Amino acid sequence: MPSVNQSEKTISMKIAFCGPGQSGKTTAVEFIRAQRGLKEQKAVEADDDAENPSGHSGDETKTFKKYMFQLGNVKGFKVFVTMITVPGMIFHKAERGMLLQDVDAVVFVADSHPERVYANKVMLEQIREMLYEETRGDLSKVTFVLMYNKRDLPNATPIDEMEKFNIWKIPYVEATARTGEGVNDAFKKAVQGVLTRL
Ligand SMILES: Nc1nc2c(ncn2[C@@H]2O[C@H](COP(=O)(O)OP(=O)(O)O)[C@@H](O)[C@H]2O)c(=O)[nH]1
Ligand SMILES: [Mg+2]
């Protein structure tokens, strides 16, 4: 649940960028950070312990990024967003569960590379399962946005193929995180989804 503080007039929400390894989560979050100039403002990096929660090595970046910033005002309330990336390769369920705690929205960054379509499906199912537990069976408490990333690839999987695993009809955005195309759109959809539930 987003937390609303009536006396301080603030709304705080947590948005997680999830997806299989190498799908473009970090690239997307870094784009948002850079665009909003969060470095000077309030880029809060996770502490070292949280940077590598699993301790595993592999080809994916295991680092997890966390940024907190003020988004703007809605009906006189200041809106604060905490944005995190949830690494694809965390082997212990408990660790990913910890990152997903109190998440209000998930931007699921799916990889359009033909060889990654199945990985997208597996990861999305896992994330939904974890959030199903986290929300005690009420997934309507979490806004989902599918960001079909790497649309610039010449061999990008056609959207109707990608949509085959989207059995929940999650709204989607086509994106190229490398250039930033579609990233803000996905982010805004997530924020709006949370705000409309308030
Ligand atoms: N072609 C292409 N490559 C991308 C795009 N987004 C990310 N990448 C590349 O995919 C790789 C993994 O990106 P990264 O953001 O680290 O993935 P993460 O593991 O999900 O955080 C990097 O080499 C990125 O440059 C994109 O939209 N198009
Ligand atoms: Mg990453």
What's the structural blueprint in terms of helices and strands?
Elements: E1 3-5, E2 10-18, H1 25-35, H2 38-42, H3 48-51, E3 66-74, E4 77-85, H4 93-100, E5 105-111, H5 117-134, E6 143-149, H6 159-162, E7 172-174, H7 183-197
Parallel strand pairs: 2-4, 2-5, 5-6, 6-7
Antiparallel strand pairs: 1-2, 3-4
The structure holds guanosine-5'-diphosphate and magnesium ion.
Using brief descriptors, characterize the structure shown.
198 residues; Rossmann fold; 7 strands; binds guanosine-5'-diphosphate; binds magnesium ion
Q: Could you explain the architecture of this structure?
A:
With 198 residues, the chain is an alpha/beta fold. It is 33% helix and 24% strand. Strands 1, 2, 3, 4, 5, 6 and 7 form a seven-stranded mixed beta sheet that branches. Helix 6 links the parallel strand 6 and strand 7. The longest helix is centred in the middle third of the chain and has 18 residues, at 117-134. The chain starts with a strand and ends with a helix. Residues 40-62 have low confidence and may be disordered. It binds guanosine-5'-diphosphate and magnesium ion. The site of magnesium ion has 4 residues, from helix 1.
Query: Mean of the pLDDT scores?
Result: 85
- According to CATH, the fold-level topology is Rossmann fold
Number of DSSP-assigned strands: 7
Low-confidence stretches: 40-62
The backbone outline, from C-alpha atoms, is globular
> DSSP strand (E) fraction?
15-25%
- The radius of gyration computed from the alpha-carbon positions, rounded to a whole number of angstroms, is 16 Å
Cα(first) to Cα(last) distance is: 9 Å
Are any ligands bound, and if so which? guanosine-5'-diphosphate, magnesium ion
**What is the helix/strand order?**
EEHHHEEHEHEHEH
* DSSP summary: helix tally: 7
Helix share bin: 25-40%
- Overall CATH class: Alpha Beta
